[in-house]
Design a protein that fits this description.
CATH class of the largest domain: Alpha Beta
Number of domains: 2
Largest sheet: 7 strands, mixed
Strand content: 15-25%
Bound molecules: pyridoxal-5'-phosphate
CATH superfamily of the largest domain: Type I PLP-dependent aspartate aminotransferase-like (Major domain)
Distance between the termini: 32 Å
CATH architecture of the largest domain: 3-Layer(aba) Sandwich
Structural class: alpha/beta
Radius of gyration: 22 Å
Number of helices: 15
Shape: globular
Helix content: 25-40%
């Protein structure tokens, strides 16, 4: 029996995994990861796999990066944790300053304040509570949110409410906040006029319900978990215009797209549009530790400051035990420093182009429906020729030393931003061969 098989049996006896059907778990022979080096995952039997999805879209510089490791170790020797409720600490302050300095600089308000959270979902949760409370404290409580179909903003109930991914969300609809879904400008099923259809639907929705809407929330430029539905930047300008026209806030959820993934620091930078609230997570800590944040415009923050004559507190009564944990902040600061020193955003843009070029022949495969990509965020949609076709392709890639994870029948490719040419070629070749094997 291999070490992997032994550990998998122990795992199956004790663990319940996220987003996992356990009836298949042992038969699927999960990878039991033991260590990692750069873009490589190494399992308990010593097999090496190129981490083609950046460990669920997180690692930006590769695993166990020496400078990030050193920063976390140094922080650990100084301060492990102290609460951010009532006290503060230097890494939390410095990281907020860095995020504000790097924030998008487009049309819309400047983002000048940072509210920390833990995971992407909890950043979204904070953002939607801020938006609702902001409406109540600037005029009249507006209880509704406008969201896009096929959206994914996380799995806590607020985040599910503003999502539109039926497979993940339909079960929980009876539990949720009131939201209004509009068609997505990235939805291929709408045909080539999808941008116009989505824009008109947004305009109409806001004309009918705008005075009850506290915020419009979108994943800017590309809906990741939908299966990489990229869309035209003009939609973000329209969303900015409609939110302003009706006095609602605009929220960009950059949990997946932020920190270089799209070949720019933020997806917002492609459109030159600023939101009022921007959520980020995943790659913010270079993919090391759970920390996320909401970047807020000054006018939003100001609505939470106490004033003379107030009859109720304006405080944002929200936060978590480990908010702004110093180890997470130290990892994030080191990661952002390395990114700037090594011009990683420009490298990510070049990596995306190269990946696109290498995958071009695969786009002509008779059983590949479409390849969608923005920067390094890539989805290869294959024809469902059998049960779990996307998963079968990923298993075949794994046999070739490339680790991938599908979303339905779309195989996601989202490597660390610092991949070398040889590693990029291996990734593209492993995927192409896997598609060929499964969809011959
Ligand atoms: C756009 C977006 N928002 C939010 C989330 C949720 O983040 P987390 O899984 O860290 O809670 C995700 C996760 O994939 C995401 O893609």
């Amino acid at each position: 029996m291999t070490a992997s098989a032994t550990w998998t049996a122990r795992d199956a006896a004790a663990v319940w995994h996220p987003f996992t059907q356990h009836a298949n778990w042992i038969d699927d022979e999960p990878t039991v990861v033991d260590r990692a080096e750069g873009p490589w995952l190494i399992d308990v039997d010593g097999r090496r796999y190129l981490d083609g999805v950046s460990s669920l879209w997180t690692t930006t510089l590769g695993h166990c990066h020496p400078e990030v490791n050193a920063a976390v170790a140094d922080q650990l020797a100084r301060l492990d944790h102290s609460t951010f409720l009532g006290t503060t600490h230097t890494p939390g302050i410095e990281l907020a300053e860095a995020l504000i300095r790097l924030a998008p600089n487009g049309n819309g308000p400047a983002l000048t304040k940072v509210f920390y959270a833990g995971d992407g979902s909890s950043a979204v949760e904070a953002a939607i509570k801020i938006a609702y409370q902001h409406s109540a404290q600037t005029g009249r409580a507006r209880p509704k949110f406008v969201r896009l179909q096929h959206a994914y903003h996380g799995d806590t109930l607020g985040a599910v409410a503003v999502g539109g991914h039926d497979l993940f969300h339909a079960t929980y609809r009876p539990l949720l906040l009131e939201t209004i879904g509009v068609p997505s400008p990235g939805d291929r099923a709408l045909g080539p006029d999808r941008l116009d259809i989505a824009t008109r639907a947004l305009e109409q929705t806001m004309a009918e319900h705008g005075d009850e809407v506290c915020a419009v929330i979108v994943e800017p430029m590309i809906q990741g978990a939908a299966g990489m539905y990229d869309y035209d930047a003009a939609f973000l300008a329209a969303a900015r215009r409609e939110a302003d026209r009706h006095g609602a806030l605009l929220i960009f959820d950059e949990v997946a797209t932020g920190v270089g993934r799209t070949g720019a620091m933020w997806a917002a930078d492609h459109a030159g549009v600023n939101p009022d609230l921007l959520t980020c997570g995943k790659g913010v800590t270079a993919g090391y530790l759970p920390l996320s944040a909401v970047l807020a415009a000054e006018h939003v923050y100001e609505a939470f400051l106490a004033r003379e004559g107030d009859t109720a507190p304006r405080t944002f009564f929200h936060g978590h035990t480990y908010t702004a944990n110093p180890l997470c902040c130290a990892a994030a600061l080191a990661g952002l420093r390395v990114m700037e020193e090594q011009d990683v955003i420009a490298r990510a843009a070049r990596l995306g182009e190269r990946l696109g070029k290498l995958l071009e022949p695969l786009g002509a495969h008779p059983h590949v429906r479409e390849i969608r990509r923005l920067g390094t965020m890539t989805g290869v949609e294959v024809e469902p020729v059998r049960e779990r076709t996307g998963f079968a392709v990923c298993q075949a890639a794994r046999e070739r030393g490339v680790w991938l994870r599908p979303l339905g029948d779309t195989v996601i490719v989202m490597p660390p931003l610092t991949l070398t040419e040889a590693e990029t070629e291996l990734l593209a070749a492993g995927l192409a061969e896997a598609v060929d094997q499964v969809l011959r």
